[in-house]
């Protein structure tokens, strides 16, 4: 889950760029609230559930179909597919063990099975990487200072651990998402004329 692992996460803002353009995120506190919602009610929770199910050995093809179906916008679909493909290619290149391209959280769950790590630990690391990327995007685009960015990330550590523990024990059939503001921002970002991020 290192930021240097070549999945291209730096190119994605998960709709955050649109929210910043709209003027809804201008401070570290705004950012923390938005990211907390993503963690508990959005892609943090849903991606965590998909990863946990894949890590437990559930059918990766069915989980991949579910991941694609849950992408609320074209850009979110492209984000999970492109990062999943890049992750699979990097793992295959590094280990020599073929990993089929799949949506990002499913690919991580399948690959992490070989590491003998607890499911909740893998989910927590995945969520930390996701939140770190979004904080980095905000530091560059809001802009926020590095200290504010680190304060936001540190403030989310407890939530990341709680969400990871919860999804590790939750059946994937209970998957749900409710972040309409984030989903609408991701949809509107598709038509943003000048943009830095792909999503």
Question: What does this 3D model show about the protein?
Answer:
The protein is an all-alpha fold and 199 residues long. It has a single domain, classed as Urease accessory protein UreF (Orthogonal Bundle). The protein contains 9 helices and no strands. Helix 3 packs antiparallel against helix 4 and helix 3 packs across helix 8. The longest helix has 23 residues. 46% of the residues are buried. The mean pLDDT is 95.
Would you state the CATH class?
Answer: Mainly Alpha
Strand content: under 5%
Total domains, how many? Answer: 1
Low-pLDDT sequence parts: none
SSE arrangement, N to C: HHHHHHHHH
User: Could you state the CATH homologous superfamily?
Assistant: Urease accessory protein UreF
How confident overall, as mean pLDDT? Answer: 95
Give the terminus-to-terminus CA distance.
Answer: 20 Å
Q: Which radius of gyration do the C-alpha atoms yield?
A: 16 Å
User: By helix and strand content, what is the structural category?
Assistant: mainly alpha
Biggest sheet descriptor: none
Total helical segments: 9
Question: Based on DSSP secondary structure assignment, what is the total number of beta strands?
Answer: 0
CATH topological fold name: Urease accessory protein UreF
CATH architecture: Orthogonal Bundle
Descriptive keywords:
9 helices, mainly alpha, 199 residues, globular, Urease accessory protein UreF
Question: How would the blueprint of this fold be written?
Answer:
Blueprint: H1 16-21, H2 28-41, H3 43-55, H4 60-70, H5 74-95, H6 104-112, H7 119-141, H8 146-168, H9 180-189
Helix pairs in contact: 2-3, 2-8, 3-4, 3-6, 3-7, 3-8, 4-6, 5-6, 6-7, 7-8
């Amino acid at each position: 889950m290192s930021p240097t692992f070549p999945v291209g996460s730096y190119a994605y803002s998960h709709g955050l760029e649109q929210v910043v353009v709209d003027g809804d995120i201008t401070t570290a506190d705004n950012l923390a609230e938005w990211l907390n919602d993503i963690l508990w009610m959005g892609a943090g929770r849903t991606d965590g559930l998909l990863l946990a199910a894949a890590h437990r050995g559930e059918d990766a093809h069915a989980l991949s179909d579910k991941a694609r179906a849950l992408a609320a916008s074209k850009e979110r679909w492209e984000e999970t597919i492109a990062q999943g493909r890049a992750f699979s290619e990097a793992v295959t290149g590094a280990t020599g063990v073929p990993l089929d391209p799949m949506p990002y959280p499913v690919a991580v769950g399948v690959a992490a099975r070989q590491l003998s790590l607890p499911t909740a630990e893998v989910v927590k690391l995945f969520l930390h990487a996701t939140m770190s990327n979004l904080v980095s995007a905000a530091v560059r685009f809001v802009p926020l200072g590095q200290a504010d960015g680190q304060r936001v990330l540190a403030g989310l550590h407890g939530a990341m651990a709680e969400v990871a523990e919860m999804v590790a024990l939750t059946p994937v059939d209970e998957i749900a998402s409710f972040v309409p503001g984030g989903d609408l921002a991701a949809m509107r970002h598709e038509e943003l004329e000048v943009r830095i991020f792909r999503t």
